[in-house]
Amino acid sequence: MTDHVHLSIKPEIISYSEVFKWDTCPRQYWYRFGLGLRPQNESGAIDTGVKGHKLLQHFYNLLELGHSKDEAVRLTQQEASRMVKAEAISEIGSLLKAWTLVDNYIRGNDFNSKAVLVENRFLIPIEKIAPEDLIDLYDLQNVQIGFTPDVVFEHTGGFCEVEDAKFVGRAWSKSKLNRFQQSKLYQIFLNRMGYNVTRSSVRFFNVTTGLVKPQDYTLSSAEEENLISDFTKAVGEVFEYRRSPESSKQYTRRTMNYTTCQFCAFEFPCTLEAEGKDASKTLKHEYTKSDYDYNR
Questions:
Q1: How many angstroms separate the CA atoms of 64 and 25, rounded?
Q2: How many CA atoms lie within 13 Å of 187's alpha carbon, on the beta-carbon side?
Q3: pLDDT (tens digit per residue) in 179-208
Q4: What's the start-to-end Cα distance of the chain, in Å?
Q5: Could you give the CA distance from residue 55 to residue 75 in angstroms, rounded to a whole number?
Q6: pTM for this one?
Q7: Which domains are present in the chain?
Q8: Is there a contact between 161 and 113 (Cβ–Cβ < 8 Å)?
Q9: What is the DSSP letter of 126?
């Protein structure tokens, strides 16, 4: 591999979330990462999910610190009560829904395995995961991938499992479940960093039905090779877009897969612009700057 890395050059950090958004729709990517916008009013599942993740993180952190499950449940109940008292009246409903889902989950599971990594932010040089020919093709020598698994559990014998939580408004189809690659990629990344991760899973918290269901994934060597190849190519496209000399990113194309638009938070301004109309007022009044830094 040609060595283009210099110690004085700051690494280019590209997050998994950024790549996923690009792969979903470059236009949605531009709204989210180019303009740095998010809807002022998130969907019910997203709003509940943000609060649910905070409660889950609190519980897992307590387990990581060595608290028993019962003690962690009790202290997380206290945190939920504190959050309710601090919440605006209009937001209490989504918080209570999040707490009901999380409380049912943590009470109904034994948690015999040790929570060893909770919301840890990782950076992995892409050279640790990607084929050399693709790194050279896209000139990715100075790129690092950022990712943040919700929790990693360590089982007896040193075997680990990476798990992410998804708060959803509806059950996912079997085909969508099978094509969901996030936890599998996290498993690959962590293994390349020296962890012994044998399984990945996504736990779905359905805010409509109140059901909590896990979806476990296994990973074959052939699938790992294909996932890494597809992911690296998407990283290359994001990196190429970032380096574009264009002064404006507003001409980023819309997806041709319009089923993606159904649940897109930017469908309306995107539709206006696609019809040649001015969406600036919509973007100004219905969206706000996101304070989340994916490169942190």
A1: 37
A2: 27
A3: 889 999 999 999 999 999 999 999 999 999
A4: 28
A5: 10
A6: 0.88
A7: 12-242 (3.90.320)
A8: yes
A9: G
